[in-house]
Specification:
This protein is mainly β. The chain has four helices and 28 strands.
Length: 368
C-alpha cells in the first residue's frame, strides 16, 4: 500500500471535516434517515461524506462511537487501499493514559471506555520516497459504531490500531486525528495480522456474502464542506450483486504475509506504450494516478494534459481517460525510484466506476 492522502492534502483536512460535520449533518429533510442497525441480517446501506480541498477529493465515513465512548462523529478516511481501522486515542481515552512514549498500561492489557488496549506496539509508516509520516500505537479491541444520525451500524468487537502520536518525516507531531483511516481493503493490516477490514466482521444471512459495494461517487457533492451522500455504501453482497449486476470479478492472490492482495493484474497503455503490471484502486489517494514503469526516462514525471491513458485488467475490464492538470492528473514513476511496483488509481476512478470487495470469496469487482 502506498497511502499518500496526508502528503497530497492539508494535514488538517480531517480536522476541517470535524468542524464542518455539524453543519453537514443537516441534510435535506425529505431524505428519511436509515435505521440504526446493530447486526445486519441481510445487508445495510450507509451514506458517506464527500469533500474537496483544491484538487484533492476525500470520502469520509462517520465514526460516532468507539467502545462506550462517543467520538463526536469523527470523519475517517474511507480507504480501499489499506486494511484496518486506525484512530487517534485523543479524547477517546483519558489524557492521563497517553504519553509521547506510549500508553500507560500495566500488564498485558487495560480496558477503558469499553476499549481493550493491548501491550502490543507497532509503527505504521505511510508516504512516498521523499516524504512520509509515522503513526505510533497499539493493537486494541472495541465495538465501532460507523455512521451517524443519518444511519449507522455497530460492528462486533473487532481489532483496531489505536495510535498515540503521529510524526512527519521531520519528526514534527501532527494534529490529533489527522490520520484516522477506515481501511476496507482485503487481507490483513501491515500493523498486525489480527487486524482486517472493519466491514469484514459482520454476521450476515446465509445467502449474503461478506463484503461491500461502493456506488459511483457524486461529483456535485464534492465541495469545501463535507456533504452527506446517502446510500453510497452497501454492506453485504447479495447473489444479485455478485452474479447479475454487471461487475467484472477478479480473483485475488493470497500471500502468507499480508493475506489477499487488492492488486489486480492489468495492462496500462499510454503514449504508444503497453506496460504489464498491477493496479491498486485506491480511494485513499486523493488526486493523482501513479503509473509505475521501469522503462520510464526519468524517475518521476507528469504526463502532459490531454494524454490518453487506458487500462485493461486480466479479466477484461477496460477503462480509458484523458489527463488534465486538475482532474485525472497522472504521473509516471520508476519502481526503482518509488520503491513500489504498483500502479495506483486515485479516488477519481471511483467517480466513473462502481467497486466491490467480496471478502467471502476473495474477489474485487469493477463496473463502469
Amino acid at each position: 500500500m502506498r497511502r499518500s492522502y496526508l502528503l497530497n492534502a492539508p494535514a488538517l483536512l480531517a480536522i476541517l471535516f470535524l468542524s464542518l460535520f455539524a453543519v453537514s449533518c443537516k441534510k435535506n429533510p425529505q431524505v428519511n434517515p436509515n435505521p440504526t442497525i446493530t447486526e445486519p441480517v441481510n445487508y445495510a446501506k450507509l451514506g458517506l461524506y464527500e469533500q474537496i480541498s483544491g484538487v484533492n477529493r476525500r470520502i469520509f465515513i462517520a465514526c460516532s462511537k468507539l467502545g462506550t465512548q462517543s467520538t463526536v462523529n469523527y470523519g475517517l478516511v474511507f480507504d480501499t487501499g489499506s486494511t484496518g481501522l486506525t484512530i487517534d486515542a485523543t479524547d477517546i481515552i483519558p489524557a492521563s493514559m497517553i504519553t509521547t512514549n506510549g500508553f500507560v498500561i500495566s500488564g498485558d492489557s487495560v480496558v477503558v471506555n469499553g476499549i481493550t488496549i493491548t501491550s502490543q506496539q507497532a509503527v505504521i509508516t505511510y508516504g512516498s520516497v521523499n516524504s512520509n509520516i509515522s503513526e505510533y500505537g497499539n493493537l486494541a479491541y472495541a465495538t465501532v459504531t460507523v455512521g451517524d444520525g443519518n444511519g449507522n451500524i455497530t460492528t462486533p468487537r473487532i481489532p483496531i490500531f489505536l495510535y498515540y502520536k503521529i510524526l512527519d518525516n521531520n519528526n514534527k507531531q501532527l494534529s490529533a486525528h489527522a490520520a484516522d483511516v477506515f481501511g476496507v481493503g482485503p487481507g490483513v493490516s501491515s500493523t498486525s495480522r489480527k487486524i482486517g477490514s472493519p466491514l469484514s466482521y459482520f454476521k450476515l444471512a446465509d445467502n449474503v456474502a461478506n463484503g461491500f459495494r461502493l456506488a459511483k461517487l457524486n461529483t456535485s457533492n464534492f465541495g469545501n464542506s463535507a456533504t452527506y451522500t446517502p446510500n453510497l455504501l452497501t454492506i453485504g453482497l447479495t447473489p444479485n450483486d455478485l452474479n447479475a449486476s454487471g461487475f467484472t470479478m477478479h480473483a485475488l492472490t493470497y500471500s502468507a504475509i499480508s493475506g489477499y492482495s487488492a492488486n489486480i493484474a492489468s495492462t496500462i497503455n499510454y503514449n504508444g506504450q503497453s506496460i504489464p503490471g498491477v493496479i491498486l484502486f485506491d480511494t485513499g489517494t486523493p488526486s493523482t494516478h501513479i503509473i509505475e514503469n521501469q522503462a520510464a526516462t526519468s524517475n518521476t514525471a507528469a504526463l502532459p494534459a490531454g494524454t490518453a491513458v487506458g487500462i485493461i485488467t486480466s479479466q477484461g475490464f477496460g477503462y480509458n481517460y484523458s489527463t488534465s492538470n486538475t482532474y485525472n492528473f497522472t504521473t509516471v514513476q520508476k519502481p526503482s525510484y518509488s520503491g513500489d511496483n504498483r500502479t495506483i488509481f486515485s479516488i477519481n476512478f471511483f467517480i466513473d466506476n462502481e467497486f466491490l470487495i467480496d471478502y467471502t470469496n476473495h474477489r474485487i469487482g469493477l463496473k463502469q
